[in-house]
């Protein structure tokens, strides 16, 4: 999650501000010899691959921040988030692949950083690689699993994340449903919010909002990263030399990077990405083949889908988009809290007009609703107004359906079940196109940055 901030490092130079500004800040970057004595590495391809790692770093948090943002507990020498970022050779695209921290992994042979013991390769959870062998083992493990050669390593902690968001003036996030997590203290009503650093940290850390846990958290992290890119590149603040320096100090003050990622590399990348925007980015989570994959001595892990994940990593190796370019949803499509594909609908013709039921059914199916495809005539065929009958337990689905049927009446019916019923009335004119406000949660789904930024999709 804090790795989102690290990506902004390469964007900060896009303002074209002189070498001297960044040169003076180069000393603020803590260095790590992440690639020392590495052998048998994957062959390099076109473009640049960065491994972005978010670490705990709560030892740098003030007691007031610890209480306000539920950052209790002892600091751990561990990673919370791991992202593989590919910047295309033409600098026109960034592909971000989230690697779940609980992924089943097998390490190469290494020396344990804590005990000094020499280990042959063995099964672990991916985030445990950092605890055993620091950045170097993390890089080697990711390269071993993906066959993607890592060019640079960036590591960000809580402090850098919060400072950067605050210096940017906050980041705008949209949510179609209330988000409340008693573990992190996150409490957002449905709608649009500008989050400051501490609240943004709660947003990207929350894992207890729904049953999807880490997978939905990674989706929120990707949404936040897209919003961060949008804020940094569209607000004009990077064109202000004083603001540029302030932001850069906030980011670099708590970043660790490999020794080869210096001022010259930052400037070259930043200048090339001067016209970067959310539409230039694409996000996905490595496809999961098996949830709860039990490993003796390791616990419950996430096993990657070998074929689907190989397609993702092959695209990175070959400097190709993760998914074919597709047109973003039309701005006129109304955002709704539930994906229409998840809403089952039975249509009834409540009028004497022949064929109205089929016309409504066809139109709802065309915008994505899972209609029964067998419309029937209602018992009473004198309906003046279109009515949606729904079980109160499926009220969010009913709200989504009502958005597609402007002017319709919502009528709760206890015990009706998961299938919503539309009684088409004489007032029916059209079905309005709708789209899910939240991106799909399934691992392996690829979304573009402009599809998940507020008001852009």
UniProtKB/TrEMBL annotation:
InterPro entries found in the cross-reference section: LytR/CpsA/Psr_C, LytR/CpsA/Psr_CW_biosynth, LytR_CpsA_psr
The LytR/CpsA/Psr regulator C-terminal domain, residue ranges: 342-428
Source species, domain of life: Bacteria
Annotated Gene3D superfamilies: 3.30.70.2390, LCP protein (3.40.630.190)
Region span, Disordered: 100-122
Span of domain Cell envelope-related transcriptional attenuator: 79-232
UniProt keyword terms in alphabetical order: Signal
Signal peptide (from-to): 1-20
Biased composition (Basic and acidic residues): 109-120
PANTHER family: POLYISOPRENYL-TEICHOIC ACID--PEPTIDOGLYCAN TEICHOIC ACID TRANSFERASE TAGU
Protein family according to the UniProt entry: Belongs to the LytR/CpsA/Psr (LCP) family.
Protein name: LCP family protein
